[in-house]
Description:
CATH architecture of chain A: Up-down Bundle
Strand content of chain B: 15-25%
Number of helices of chain B: 2
Helix content of chain B: under 10%
Helix content of chain A: 55-70%
Strand order of the largest sheet of chain B: 5-6-7
CATH class of the domain at 3-100 in chain B: Alpha Beta
CATH class of chain A: Mainly Alpha
Radius of gyration of chain B: 22 Å
Oligomer: heterodimer
Radius of gyration of chain A: 22 Å
CATH topology of chain A: Fumarate Reductase Cytochrome B subunit
Strand content of chain A: under 5%
Shape of chain B: elongated
Largest sheet of chain A: none
Number of strands of chain A: 0
Number of helices of chain A: 9
Distance between the termini of chain A: 55 Å
Largest interface: A-B, 33 and 42 residues
Distance between the termini of chain B: 63 Å
Order of helices and strands of chain B: EHEEHEEEE
Amino acid sequence: xxxxxxxxxxxxxxxxxxxxxxxxxxxxxxxxxxxxxxxxxxxxxxxxxxxxxxxxxxxxxxxxxxxxxxxxxxxxxxxxxxxxxxxxxxxxxxxxxxxxxxxxxxxxxxxxxxxxxxxxxxxxxxxxxxxxxxxxxxxxxxxxxxxxxxxxxxxxxxxxxxxxxxxxxxxxxxxxxxxxxxxxxxxxxxxxxxxxxxxxxxxxxxxxxxxxxxxxxxxxxxxxxxxxxxxxxxxxxxxxxxxxxxxxxxxxx
Amino acid sequence: xxxxxxxxxxxxxxxxxxxxxxxxxxxxxxxxxxxxxxxxxxxxxxxxxxxxxxxxxxxxxxxxxxxxxxxxxxxxxxxxxxxxxxxxxxxxxxxxxxxxxxxxxxxxxxxxxxxxxxxxxxxxxxxxxxxxxxxxxxxxxxxxxxx
Lengths: 253, 147
């Protein structure tokens, strides 16, 4: 049932589809506004502009438009498979969370905007919503309890919470309660429990998006920017790193 | 010359925390990136600089004696068995050096416990543990008595 039922259909008894659509728009604005505030507050734009200027001044050759586009495509391909991570567990958990989040988010948007009310819905959409939520939960719990660097390397307790955990904490709480709410809604006819769980789900979802200025959400945007700038620096000769060795000294097995 | 971390490059993998002999590379509680908690105690061993897979750690001179923008950057390529250095002098000259660090693949060195338990009779041998196989030769050279 969970994989075929639109979780938002039952809400239309109390909310009009417009209310849900307005909520999604408000959350989108919260993310955009929060990210811009984060960029302004940290001076990230100034930092990247200065770094770009320095790189241009130290460049040994100018890159053509085609070359720059190729570097951008390479950067996107790198980000798509999280290949910047040097350790496979972190990479796999991030991929689970990233693609799970995309599935969960896109299917939510499509269900709320394209199939409002009790409109018949392709079975694939609730299935993608549920699968996406499970992917986030599996990757997120693995990351939270075993892979967080302060837990794995700095001796902190797996239950230690700090500002850096705002994003992962609220994300996990949001999808966990989304799944529980959806399960209770489809399995038991208990409106009170369903509404309480829905309230908790919306509470954590709202916190997830409105805390963007203080959470690590914005790293999804600035990490690829840094990766692109690094590729440009390597290509135009302004990188301060040594050139890769042309010789391989591994001569024995 | 203490270390510092470029937070835009660091992905918080923890390699520097693991390798720092002074135990001063730690994880920032707010941004969850590495940082040097006590620059005065850094002895510039470059362990973290070499270990960082993202090349996010650099070493800077104190402003009172190294104010003119010199720089020493390191690139470790374990798959090639080499560490390369790029040095920018105060007058702007650049020099690059590459140093081989090993000849066997990264991670291929076995710990003592991974070898078979030696026979007690090996105590009477003049060979050290795992010789001559570990030296990649058939036999150690030996003086032979003249007939």
